[in-house]
Amino acid sequence: MKPIIFAIVCIFFSCQNKKELPAADIQGTDTLATNFAEMAKQTDTIEINAEDAATWLKEVVESHFNDSGFPMEDICTPEYYEYKTDATQVGYDGGMTEEDFVQKWSSTYDVRYAGISVGFLISAQDWGKIEVTRCVPKSKQIPGEITFEVFLTDVPYKMNYKRDITVIPVGKAYLIKNVAEFNE
Q1: Nearest to 82 by CA among 51, 26, 46, 36
Q2: End-to-end Cα distance, the chain
Q3: Which of 31, 129, 136, 158 could tie 27 with a disulfide, CB 3.0–4.6 Å?
Q4: Nearest CA among 129, 131, 144, 139 for reference residue 164
Q5: Which among 37-41, 119-123, 140-144 has the top mean pLDDT?
Q6: Which domains can be identified in the chain, with CATH numbers?
Q7: Mean pLDDT of 9-30
Q8: From residue 174, how far is each of 50, 76, 121, 166 by CA, in Å?
Q9: What separation in angstroms does the CA of 125 have from each of 45, 121, 131?
Q10: Are the CB atoms for 95 and 86 separated by under 8 Å?
Q11: Which pTM value belongs to this model?
């Protein structure tokens, strides 16, 4: 009988101390997406340190391939992540057709350089050690973002990949906004 009375007393007191969270303290995915959109708008006025952005890009790309660090979704904008995921899955079961892909994304990206049906940043399914052998800012820039001419080299397989990678500042780091894949 004592355990039952103890349980009832505990339930009674726990119900008395119910704390209501104000609506401002609760963030759903819509709020997070809105916050990202607001941060992206603010980048138009931020001056980007090209050397800092290049260092970040080199570190995250090499870590992504060589150390299994930095998953793609953590280093890309949500929109680019969705775009590249769609591009990778074109022609596969469950993926969209190339026509559907072009229709969905051609107003936002130059789909000629999407890397359709190939992976993120390199087209090889297998790779050895990936090194960023060139990462130079391109001369024409859009305010709030910076585009680098990047050469990725698979050292053991002696493969080279030329990419133009656009990054934007987000907080104290950067995110990949677009990748133009020039060779596969």
Answers
A1: 36
A2: 74
A3: 31
A4: 139
A5: 119-123
A6: 50-181 (3.10.450)
A7: 46
A8: 11, 8, 17, 10
A9: 39, 11, 16
A10: yes
A11: 0.74
Give which of 76, 83, 85, 28 is closest to 56, Cα–Cα. Answer: 76
- The residues with which 162 forms a beta bridge, in sequence order, are 151
Secondary structure letter of residue 112 according to DSSP? G
Residue-averaged pLDDT of the chain:
82
14-21 mean pLDDT: 46
Can you give the three-state secondary structure of 158-180, one letter per residue? CEEEEEEEEEEEECCEEEEEEEE
Confidence of residue 145 (pLDDT cuts 50, 70, 90): very high
What whole-number distance in Å separates Cα of residue 77 and Cα of residue 45? Answer: 18
Mean pLDDT on 68-92: 94
Q: Which residue has the tokens 């726990």?
A: 14
Nearest to 163 by CA among 152, 154, 176, 174: 152
| pLDDT of res. 172 | 87
- Partners of 135 in the beta sheet? 150
CB 182 within 8 A of CB 164: yes
